[in-house]
Amino acid sequence: MMKPMDKSGLTLVATAALILLSGCASTTADNKAATAAPAATGGAKPAAAPAPAATNAGAAAVAPQAAPQAARPPADPTAPKPFAEIIKDAKQQNGLFPIWRKDEKVWLEIPKAMLGKPFLFTANTANAVGERGLYASEMMMDMMAEFRLVGRQVQLVALNTKFRAVAEQGSKAAIEQAFSPSLLASAPVASAEHPERKSVLVDASALLFNDIPGYSTRLEMAYRLPFALDKANSSFAAARADEGLSTLTARAHFATPRIPAPPLTPPPVPVPTPPQSTPDPRSLFVDFVYNFLALPEQPMAPRHADPRLGHFMESFTDLGGDLKANPRVHYVQRWRLEKKDPAAALSEPVKPITFWMDKNIPVKYRAAVEAGILQWNLAFEKIGFKNAVVAKQQPDDANWDNMDAGHASIRWFVGADVGFARGPSHTDPRTGEILDADIMMSDVFARGSRRFIAEDLGMSSEQRLAQLSQGWQNGASSAAFCNYALGAASEMHFALDLLEARGDIAPDSPEAEAFVNSVIRDTIAHEVGHTIGLKHNFKASTTVTQAQLKDRAWTEVNSTSNSVMDYNAYNLPLKGEAKTTINPTTLGAYDYWAVEYAYKPIAPEQEKAELARIAARSTEPKLAYADDADAGGFGPYDGFDPLANRFDLGDDPLAYYKKRLKLSQELWERVQARKPQLGDDPLRQRRQILAGFRQLNGAAELAGKYVGGMHALRDLPGTTGRPSFRPVEPAKQREALQFITTGLMSADSFRFKPELLSSLTLDYNEWDRGTPLNIPAVVWGLQRVALDRLLSAGTASRLLDLNAYVKPEQRKGMISLNEVYATLQGAIWSELKSGSEIDRLRRTLQREHVKRLQTLLTKGSPALPADALSLLRYNATQLQGELRAAVAKGGQSVETRAHLAESLSALSEALRATMSRG
């Protein structure tokens, strides 16, 4: 009995029949091939094949014929063409991934040996839009990536380095299963595998014209328009390849189909305008410099970070074991620096840290830039390295772009609304080794600062940082944000204005030029500090005493701060005081300490103990440290330590803020006393007036940090026994509150002659020329900053909790939240007790105070403690009674009477209203 045939058998039979039919159908072709064969086989004739057997008895006889050759599968029309055919007549650039170019076509060659091998993939912006955070010379994304070949598709995959298993313990596979990598781009293979080179080609345009950096999102953030990458009009502007590196510069075209018509009525939230810096707002080009950089074959030994110092870190979660309470690991980001002669006390490095100075840097500033770079050799010499940092000038006729990953650089760029410098870097995520860095330095010191800084008023530091960092993403954290150049330029121009008004320095004089160069040197030193791994230190300036700041002999040698990594304010003397060093001159004690921790050569077996010894010096007064979060201005970090600030000076910051008020008032007096001269810039006086207000804008916020403030220390548990948090002394809190209420909220602090205000002209050559200077609005801008701080939820919470941080016997005399609210309210409404006239400056402040009370009394605040709301209502009721009495008394001008009546009505309605609770 015959068994039934299974499915596989049927399949085999069907396949055999197809092969047979295929062979029969190709008999003629095979015979032709056989006839031609002798030419290739030396003339030997093929042997005749036997006749095929009949398949059944009734089948007709088949005439004898030559046996068919082995069956050939049909050609695959989709198969890639041979490698040699694709690159015929193309020019090759050898590198990590060889680059082939022919006309407008560009291919990347991917060796089979490089599939699945990690490298560093980075993207930088060489050319950009020039406004709203979209600037040239910007380092962007960096990630460890690899190429994968899936069928005929080449994938560029970013590897997940956020979760690892340092001590594997069987966790590696589980981690890979748990946490996904990301696909950055993919494209079909463009060629068959090369038979000798064992590599394939991929069309670079298909792979890279895909907006890998996510720039369309940044464009949408800036303009609220749907810009998209236009592949058809994108191209490659440049290519470079050498050992260990391949670089392609993609000129990406972004476009939006149309610009929507403006709304008929102004929206409640202002809508950004379309691009203003491009000829056509619908179209713009951005150059992305894509780098494929080989990772070191031998990874650098990592060095663990210590929170008592401030280094940029490579951070990840180590899931390789379960013995540590905290699985987070932080490696110091640093360059690989090794001595040529390890036994020598002072040796040059095997490979120095080399910075290329961009050919766009103006010639007159190049010496200052170089000095700022080389200044760091002072710190490296202390730990045994000679010429650890090198500066090289890019030739003016160079045709290579230093934004590739093969050159650390100082790049000079311009923009329509720009005023900052940044010092980012790209690192090996396995170890924290810095592999590339490109400092972007704007022309803020040459042109941009005066127009850009002058109108930047009335904003808190948080708002300023948010404005400047808009769109700055792609992996850049707030910890890496730096706008020191903007603030330094503001300090520089205020100082120059004041010194010029005093007659100490002439505009456009050699002395003024030297002053500017000293500021550039200091700013470059600051940014180079970032690119060798150092974060900001916003306590360094408070470790110099007031007496030392007045001693010029001391400051010339030791500088005005203990770190160039602080945002250092200028040491301007008051009128009548002796001249001293105005801006920082050299590295400080903290800078030497931070470099020692990161770079000191230490034997592996001694490293843990030696690093602990170095970090333990954190208790030395000169080495006090605080970072960006400590200073505040980022998300929930409002900054509560009054010694951790941007742009303060000396061991008593509050005294510095009082001094700044006096310096601003001196500048205003001198501006009013000087008569305009023929040839003056029309905006000169306006700019100088606003420069003084800008200084006070920062003082308003920073003085407010004393109220409800806490001193913070970074000691590790069990090292010193000092408290981590300690309330600011009550007397100092009251002193700061007094300065705000009687100095910054007093109309007498801001008196200007009518002759001055009426002479402040506009630039009538411009359509966007502004309006006459509104002093009440500018004054309210800085008062608003102080009011924001004193009425904030963070200040209220800390004032309510201060007693919990001190022993019962120490609580006598502590400042309370109600004392702050009552003092503030009494100062704002002081005219109610005196019965005096209320001028416009004061009416603006009082009106805004009532508006805030209205909001809090009717809508509440989810962040504000309930006790704070109760106290605000209590004080508002007190104010209501005082307003009733003042309205009943009368006697002032009609403006004052109307203002008091309106304030009373608004406050009474708020007190009667039922709170809307979310």
TrEMBL record:
* Assigned keywords, A-Z: Signal
Supply the InterPro entries for this chain: DUF5117, DUF5118, EcxA_zinc-bd, MetalloPept_cat_dom_sf, Zn_MMP-like_bac
Pro residues bias spans = 259-277
UniProt xrefs under Gene3D superfamilies: Collagenase (Catalytic Domain) (3.40.390.10)
Recorded superkingdom: Bacteria
Q: Where is the DUF5117 domain?
A: 139-340
Annotated PANTHER family: PEPTIDASE M1A AND M12B, ZINC DEPENDENT METALLOPROTEASE DOMAIN LIPOPROTEIN
Domain EcxA zinc-binding spans what residues? 510-833
- Kindly give the Pfam families that the UniProt entry links to this protein: DUF4953, DUF5117, DUF5118
Signal peptide from the UniProt entry: 1-29
Q: Where is this region: Disordered?
A: 258-277
The protein's name is Uncharacterized protein DUF5118
Q: Which residues form the DUF5118 domain?
A: 80-123
What terms describe the molecular function in GO for this protein?
Answer: metallopeptidase activity
